Amino acid sequence: MKATWKLADGREVTHDVAEGLNLMEAATSRGVPGIIGECGGSMSCATCHVVVDPAWAERAGDPSAFEEDMLDITEAGRQPTSRLSCQIRMRAELDGIVVAVPQP
Ligand code: FES
């Protein structure tokens, strides 16, 4: 399965992502710029913030209540399809997902 990150500088990178891996883990293991994942996926840092491409937002799902609170304090500012990428777990229906890394 694949995921594409649109970087803040306009470049795009696409990587293979194994099923079950979350998009923060996938990004940090490949060195995707702008995704830090400081808390390791425990929803306490928001340094894994991405903006899901609107075409994929419904499939990616809605944030949980706790994720909602964290999204309100993201450094780059929340957008309508913002998510914490540590909470998006790769599965077949997300194969090909596109997310943008917000401008810091
Ligand atoms: S990695 Fe910290 S909130 Fe996602």
Question: What is the topological layout?
Answer:
Elements: E1 2-6, E2 12-16, H1 23-30, E3 49-52, H2 54-60, H3 65-71, E4 82-84, E5 97-100
Parallel strand pairs: 1-5
Antiparallel strand pairs: 1-2, 3-4, 3-5
The structure holds FE2/S2 (inorganic) cluster (FES).
Task: Summarize it.
The chain has 104 residues and is an alpha+beta fold.
The fourth-level CATH homologous superfamily is Beta-grasp domain
Largest sheet: 5 strands, mixed
Based on Cα principal axes, name the global outline: globular
CATH class: Alpha Beta
Shape-level CATH architecture: Roll
Describe this structure in words.
A five-stranded mixed beta sheet has the order 2-1-5-3-4. The termini are far apart. The chain has one domain: Ubiquitin-like (UB roll). With 104 residues, the chain is an alpha+beta fold. Helix content is 21%, strand content 20%. FE2/S2 (inorganic) cluster is lined by residues 24, 37-39, 41, 43-48, 84, 86.
Features:
104 residues; Ubiquitin-like (UB roll); 3 helices; 21% helix; binds FE2/S2 (inorganic) cluster
